Amino acid sequence: MDTKELEGLPKQDGEIEKGKAHITVELIEYEHNEVVSKSIMKKTTGSVNAMSFDTGTGLNNKTSPFDTYLQIIDGSAIIVVDGRASKLDVGQGILIPAHATSHVEPNGRFKLLLTVIKSGYE
Q1: CATH class as words, domain 3-117
Q2: pLDDT tens digit string along 89-114?
Q3: Angle at 57 between CA 53 and CA 59, to 5 degrees
């Protein structure tokens, strides 16, 4: 999944400060009718992003050439991978394999961590 594949392009926020403790769910706020993305770390080998989704917003169908790990950190959402739906609640995650078609369906407001690993595909 790539944040550019969102129903509306997300608002971007700067990376978090290195070496400073934080509360993950508080890194990002909800905004009315918006998807918001905050980069926690971005490298050529992958990225970690915190994202918030207001009610009714989600991710469109996407196929990524890389494995992607998605974990719900607030609320709940329905994650569909190759047509198989899983409802995830706070603390639950799912590994979306490379080349699988996936999308995120809203289930009210929710926040997630999205980790993409690009190394190992050379």
Answers
A1: mainly beta
A2: 999 999 999 999 999 987 899 999 99
A3: 90
What does residue 2 show for φ and ψ, rounded to 5 degrees?
Answer: -125, 135
Structure token digits, residue 18: 């290195």
CB 47, CB 119: distance < 8 Å: no
- This prediction's pTM: 0.81
pLDDT tens digits for 17-49? 888 898 989 999 999 988 899 999 999 999 999
- Strands, DSSP E only, in 54-100? 59-63, 67-81, 84-89, 93-96
- The Cα-based distances of 21 to 12, 52, 96 in angstroms read 21, 20, 28
